[in-house]
Amino acid sequence: MDQLDRKIIGELQNDGRISVTDLAERLPLSLSATSERLKRLLDTEVITGFHARIDPELAGRSIEALVDVRLGPGAYTSDPDFADPAFAGVIDAVHLTGRFDVQLHVMTHDVAELDTLLAKLKDEIGAEETNTRLVLRQLDGFPRPVRPT
Predict the structure, then answer these.
(1) Residues ≥6 apart with Cβ < 8 Å to 71
(2) 73 partner at 20 to 30 Å CA-CA among 15, 20, 24, 90?
(3) What is the pTM of this model?
(4) How much is the pLDDT for 77?
(5) Which residues contact 51 (CB under 8 A, 6 or more apart)?
């Protein structure tokens, strides 16, 4: 991957609906060369998909938080299914090193839904400890999370 590939990726991150023609105009490449590079990035799965950015407040999910989860002994026999509808507010989950096992990025409709989600973590997957931090604002230059439904 070279600088032109990075430029293509950057343009697509800013506007995933940009046409190949408009993309080629923003690069020092012909339409066919841009199409070939884009196809290669898709074929090699450097680009794995295109997503809509959604304003969480307009989608009714105004509470955004990061939740660190430490699982109890024996609770980590397999990866918890955070994509399950029971955890509808979870939009991203990562396995960590350190004191906590998992960090969840969550968006909920209100504090009551966040409270319910935290209870489910303890009751359904055996979370021994959670640490929740509310997100105050998104910093400029970084995309919003993708999946607040």
Answers:
(1) 101, 102, 125, 126, 127, 128
(2) 90
(3) 0.69
(4) 59
(5) 16, 146, 147
